[in-house]
Amino acid sequence: MRAARLLEQADVVLHDALVSPEVLALIGDARVIDVGKRCGTKLLTQQEINSLLVAYASQYEVVIRLKGGDPTIFGRAGEEIEALVEAGIAYEIVPGISSALAAAAAAGVSLTDRRYASSVVFTTAHSGIDSELTAWNRLVSSHSTLAIYMPGSSYRQLAVQLREAGLRPQTPCASCPMLGVLRSRCTGAISHHWSSWNHSLRQPY
Questions:
Q1: 29 is a catalytic site residue
Q2: Active site residue: 37, 42, 70, 113, which one?
Q3: Predicted structure pTM score
Q4: By CB distance 3.0 to 4.6 Å, which of 31, 54, 106, 135 could disulfide with 87?
Q5: What is the C-alpha separation between 37 and 48, in angstroms, rounded?
Q6: One-character DSSP codes across 4-46
Q7: pLDDT digits (tens, 9 = 90+) for 1-38
């Protein structure tokens, strides 16, 4: 695996909060720096992370920005790439498994079961622009599977917003937190289509 080889060779690793201990154990003799955020509490701002990346990459041969998932899906990779490009620093992206795909595997379901959805939308309950709100009405009316990243601390509030936007209370759903951890599990979901689960948006949690 390309990622495992690079972790063993790294001089510096800056990692997110959701990277599992099992993955961190693959790191060799590198300097390891936790730059993640937990429950909205940031250890460093994004600008500070960008500055660290540029500073270390200017000094060392192999510097890794390690994320729990695919860095190009809600991983702020664009901002970090921009900082490296502006500094004239070469970089490589090693793709990972995005949490929406890991969630589907953990739950044992298809994101695009042709009987129910012919498309999937990756979205988030948070926006980088204060004035911009997630357009739940538009997303619900697309009849796509919704993979919602960073749903916030209140699943009940999110469920209410989705129902107000027109999502049927019987819609199957799954909650899959901490997917970067190998022993994480999905809970929830529902409707007679997936009889192994026993909750629905009627009783958000």
A1: no
A2: 37
A3: 0.79
A4: 54
A5: 13
A6: HHHHHH-SEEEE-TT--HHHHTT--S-EEEE--EETTEESS-H
A7: 899 999 999 999 999 988 989 999 999 999 999 998 76
